[in-house]
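Subject — a protein and its fold
Fields — amino acid sequence, C-alpha cells
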Amino acid sequence: MKILWIIILVADNLLPFLLAHFYPNYKHKEMALSVLGSRQSPVKWIYNVWCIISGIVFCIAPYELYKENSSGLMIAIWVLLAIYGIGCEIISGFCPLNENKQDEDALTKIHGGASAIGFMTLLVVPLLLAILQFQATNIIMGVISLVSFIVAFAFFCFFIMGEKEKFANTVLRYGGLWQRLVLASCYVLLAVWCITK
C-alpha cells in the first residue's frame, strides 16, 4: 500500500502536465487543477476518474500507517488525509465545476466547498507530522515536516490572496502555480514519510 500511495503522490503532480497537452489554452500558472476536470474540459473523464481513485487511496493508505503507530496524532493525521481525499479528490471528481465563473451552479458550489475543506485539512498534516516526529526524537524528519508546513502555508496564503481583485495585476494572480506548490510541498513530505516508515 505504501508503494501504491507513493505512485499516487507522484502521479497526482505529473498527470496534470500530461493532460494539459490535450486541453488547448490551458495555462498551468493561472488555472487551477480543477479546470482540467471541468465540464468544458476535453480530458474531464480521465482527470475526474483519476481524482476518485486517488481519493480512495488517500483514505486507505494513511490507515495502514496508522496501524503501525496508533497514537492520537496518527489518528488525527489519518482523518485529515481521509477528509482531503474525500473533499479534494472524490467529491471533486463526482462534482466537476463549471469553468464559466458567471454561471455557478450547485455542483460547482459543492466542488468549491469540498475542495476548500480538503485543502485546509491537508495543510495541517505537515504540522502534525512535525509534532509526531519531534515527540519520537526524530529531529531531522521533524524539521523537514515543520519547514514543509511553513512553505505550504505561505503558498496557500499566496493562493488565497491571488483571488482578491486588488492583487489581479501582481505575481499573486498565478493561482494555479501556488496551488501546485502547496500540493508539492505536502506531497513530497508524505512521500518521504512513506519511504522512511
About this structure: Helices lie at 2-19, 44-68, 72-94, 106-135, 139-161, 175-196. The first helix runs from residue 2 to 19. The chain has a mean pLDDT of 89. The chain is about 70% helix and 0% strand.
